[in-house]
Design a protein that fits this description.
Length: 120
């Protein structure tokens, strides 16, 4: 019954968030409605809501399941957005992943299943 979830992260600066998600992450910007931002890339949507408390994005984030995680890592690494402890690695829970920090401090993990099963 469930199809997908859309993360809604905090944005401290509308213009900087639009620039970050389009220029650094390669997302398409769709709309802004009173500071509420909508982006997508490869069928994945991320929404951002306006926030003025810098503690909130530092305590939030999301996980995006991907294919070709090594290729995505090579695309994003030169942009200096990889989390200080988020280099590409195989995790004990069967995912190969890396993490980035967005312009507001939200953490986004990108991971590919390396277990070989297709369970969701």
């Amino acid at each position: 019954m469930l199809l997908k979830a859309v993360p809604i992260l905090a944005s401290l600066d509308e213009a900087e968030s639009i620039k970050f998600y389009t220029e650094k992450l390669g997302f398409t910007f769709h709309s802004a409605w009173d500071g509420y931002l909508i982006f997508s890339r490869d069928g994945i949507s991320i929404h951002l809501w306006p926030c003025d408390d810098p503690k909130i994005p530092k305590a939030t984030g999301c996980y995006v399941n991907v294919t070709e995680v090594d290729k995505l890592y090579q695309e994003l690494k030169p942009k200096n957005i990889i989390h200080p402890n988020g280099d590409l690695q195989d995790m004990p829970w069967g995912m190969r992943q890396f993490s980035i920090l967005d312009n507001s401090g939200n953490i986004i993990h990108f991971g590919e299943d390396i277990q070989g099963d297709d369970e969701d």
